[in-house]
Amino acid sequence: MSLDGAIVKVQRESSVDDDDTAEATLRATLEVLGERISREEAKDVAGQLPDEMETWVIDWDTESAQPFGVDEFCDRVADRLDVDTETAHNRAQAAVDALEMEISAFERSAVQGQLPDEYDTLF
To answer: How far apart are CA 43 and CA 90, in angstroms?
Structure first.
């Protein structure tokens, strides 16, 4: 899938109308995911993403593997998108669904292995 395909998936699953908002949703979700999982895992995920998206999950200036829960995950996405937490959760779910189409089953399992069970509402 391409960035355009991921944008369409986010639009379809989260009722986002425009490409820019869908792309911002993907970017915000991947950035926060990169803060939550290990840097090594983020590099593995990035290696399976379309070129335009791979840098979104790795920020060399931000600490990785931060131990925050799903509520904080959604709060961080909400802050980046300037939306309420419920909207952020719905959009992040759509972005994760798009991400799961990009990465292998092995990578999905590796990411999920770094997250507590409360993340099941997203992943």
So the answer is: 25
